[in-house]
Amino acid sequence: MISIKDVNFCYKGSQEAGLHDFSLDIGEGEAVLLCGASGCGKTTILRLINGLIPHYYKGELEGSISVNGRNVPESELYELASVVGTVFQNPRSQFFSVDTDGEINFGNENLGLAPKEILRRKKEVVSELDLEPLLGKSLFELSGGEKQKIACAGVSALMPDIMLLDEPSSNLDWKAIGELKEVIKCWKAKGKTIVISEHRLWYVKDIVDRVIFMKDGRIEHQWNKEEFGSLTAQELCSYGLRPTSVEEKYIKEFGDGIFSADDKTENDSIERYENSITLKDMFFTYDIPKYFFKKKKLNAADSADYTLAIPELELPRGKVIGLIGRNGAGKTTFLRCICGLEKDCTLKITADGDTLSGKRIMKKCYMVMQDVNHQLFTDSVRAEVMLSMDDEDKEKADSIIGDLGLSGYEETHPMALSGGQKQRVAIASALAANSEILLFDEPTSGLDRAHMTAVAEMLAEIAKDNRVVIVSTHDPELISLCCDYTLCIENGRLKYLRKCQ
Question: Residue 104: which of 90, 130, 122, 129 has the closest Cα?
Fold first, then answer.
């Protein structure tokens, strides 16, 4: 089904990333997992299979790639679309419509299929993936997990024989990952050939037939399902891989039981901290109500229409606070309001006896966004890091770059890096900004175990410098590595702030 022979590839503008003397055969109906450190070549393999290399991503390519009998370099992308479907890490990057129905139909409409056939395929996919509740909705109203399901549906409706998934779970909560797993199992039951690039291994370990471990653009190890399942936690760690099992307490904390019955409905950590900042009057809505100009007088009791309503919250300095909650709970909105990106929020911040609002808040905060492509502006990694400094310091910038495992990429264009490497560049910029309040929205999505550990150590270290560090995450490993507190948001309301056990 898929044959890659003696491939050497180097991206234009980069001498490091790519593949070296790479060969791989994948049989019809086989499910294969690609794993390994960020930048090892996983995404490059997927781009070879779907034709984005060499038709979109340019570089020096040697060797042969064939998919279902087609020579990929000599085939047009539209010819491959009916054979290979791809679900990307960020579903928004592959959306073309504004509503769910239009997105599911878009690919088939673009291929010029008859209206009856388009509707037949849509009906079949909606039934298979249980999408009836999502029909007729705006894509902008969906949670991350719901967007990923629609992305899967749009690809599935094309009915390709091969399904590629590039870090599909990186921005999903545990419930959404469970739903994604069911989608993949459905595809496998239909005999699809599936290739998944992932760092989160626990949800795919029972689905895949073969696991391929990549290192520096080459295949380092291969295991079948049974062999991979028998690897111990220590062995996985020696390969730099995340665990394949998750402790029960984290399943309760982050899965369907994230809000268990015995959880209190109010902040159960009302203690006063000797060294802290206080958030007050945090009211915000994406739909401005008629009483908009009276927002500042509202409290939690009469603010049911608000997207986010937190009357008061005290946050300790010198600690790492893990921000948790399901997709769509309001975590990103909470972070955007703190750093001043949502200008209509009524928030005030009290720190060191001074009360800040408006633009003064922005000077104290720095946020690393979930989609880091929105905040990469320069033509080199070093320039990107120095851009956030008040006084440019090349030596300090290179030190931060090295600490995050990016040595050797100082002069590389950020957009030529892998998703995980881009994430680390954004984190490096945040560290260089030296702000008092540092906010991170899913900073370890797309990161391997080693770099997750490095980020955790860095977060703990910068918090010691009397900063408030808040990190939104769905990764229980990150919580266990560095967080002192967990702050839970549910439906835009504070569920609790408590010390980690």
Answer: 122
In whole angstroms, what is the distance from residue 455 CA to residue 326 CA? 22
Number of C-beta neighbours around residue 178 at 10 A: 15
CATH number, span 2-252 = 3.40.50.300
**115-129 helix and 144-156 helix, angle to the nearest 10 degrees:** 130
**How far apart are the C-alpha atoms of 197 and 89, rounded to whole Å?**
10
Q: What average pLDDT score do residues 394-401 get? A: 93
Neighbours of 138 (CB within 10 A): 10
Q: In what order do the strands lie in the sheet with 437-441?
A: 365-368, 437-441, 468-472, 319-324, 485-490, 493-499
CA distances from 430 to 382, 384, 389, 461 (A): 13, 10, 9, 13
pLDDT of residue 263: 43
Q: Give residue 269's pLDDT.
A: 44
Report the distance separating Cα 181 and Cα 247, nearest Å: 19
Every domain of the chain and the residues it spans? 2-252
pLDDT tens, 108-129?
998 889 999 999 999 999 998 8
